[in-house]
Amino acid sequence: MSFMFGFFIPLIYAVEKWLKLKFPAPTLAITLFIAMGSIMGVGYNLYTVVPFFDIILHVLSGFVFACLGFGLFQLAVGEAKNKKPFWACLLFGFALSLAIGLVWELFEYLGTALFGLDMQEDTIVNGFNSYLLSGTHSETFNIDGITQTVIYFGSGKSITIDGYLDIGLIDTIEDMAVCFLGAIIYFVAIAIDWHKKKILFRGLIPQLVNNAVDAPPIISNEISDDVLEVAAEIDGELKLTVCSDLCDVANND
C-alpha cells in the first residue's frame, strides 16, 4: 500500500488531464489524507491508538467521493449553472458515494472470506437476539448480560473473551452508516451553499476545464499593451489593424 501511494499524486494529475477536470486543493487534501490514513491506520496502529479514527476516515470518504461524483457527472450534463443540472449532479454525487461505500465493504468481506484477513473488525458485545436459538421466527431468543465467552479448540486449548464476539456485522453496518452520514453532510452543505455564495461549491467540487485549443479565437474590442494598433484614415474611413497572439492580422474596414 505504501508503494502504491507513491503513484497516487501522478495518477490524480493524469485523471485531471484525461477528464479535463480541475480538483480543488481542499478536495485533494482530504483525498490524500484518506489514502495516507488507510496506510498509517495499519502501519502505526492508529485504528487502535486514535479513538474513532476509522469512523473519521469513512465520514470523510462519504463526503469527498460525493464531491468527486458531482464533478464527474458534469462531464455528461455540463456545468451546473442552473437548477436542473445542479440537482442532477448533486444526486449523482450522493448516489456514487453510497455505491463506493458498498463496493468497499464487499472488498473487505472478500478479504475476510477468501484470504483469511480481518478487514471487517470484530466487536465485543454483551448481548444479542437470535431467531436460530429460539427455533422459530415468531419470536427471538434474547441473550443479555454476557460477561464471558469461552472458545474451545480441538487441541484442548481455550480462549476466554470478556463478552461476546461479533465478527464483523457491526463494523460493516457502522462503516456504511457513517459513509451515508458524510454523503448527507455533502448534500445539505453544497445545496445550501450553491444558493448562497458558492464558497464550498468552488472550493470542493471539481470543475470542468475549458479546452483552449478547441475554443474559437476571440478578438476583444479593447486593445492591450502587447497589441500593436495602427490606424490610418483612408477615404474618410478608419482602418484598424490588430496583431495579437490569437491571429496575425485582423482587418476591420
Overview of the structural elements:
With 253 residues, the chain is an alpha+beta fold. The protein folds into three domains: 2-120 and 169-208, no CATH class; 123-166, no CATH class; 217-253, no CATH class. It is built from nine helices and eleven strands. The strands form five sheets. Strands 9-10-11 form a three-stranded antiparallel sheet, with no helix packed on it. Helix 3 packs antiparallel against helix 5 (53-77). The longest helix has 33 residues, at 83-115. The chain is elongated, with a radius of gyration of 29 Å. The N and C termini lie far apart (66 Å).
Describe this structure in a few short sentences.
This protein has 253 residues and is of the alpha+beta class. The chain has helices at 2-5, 8-19, 25-43, 46-49, 53-77, 83-115, 131-134, 169-194, 199-204; strands at 21-22, 123-125, 127-130, 141-144, 149-152, 158-161, 164-166, 207-208, 228-234, 237-243, 250-252.
How many structural units, i.e. domains? 3
Mean pLDDT: 84
Strand content: 15-25%
Helical proportion, percent range: 40-55%
H/I helix tally: 9
Outline, from the CA principal axes?
Answer: elongated
Secondary-structure content class: alpha+beta
Poorly predicted segments = 211-220, 222-253
Question: Order of SSEs, N→C?
Answer: HHEHHHHEEHEEEEHHEEEE
Q: Looking across the biggest beta sheet, what order are the strands in?
A: 9-10-11
Rg, nearest Å:
29 Å
| Extended strand count | 11
**Biggest sheet, open or closed, and with what strands and sense?**
3 strands, antiparallel
Distance between the termini: 66 Å
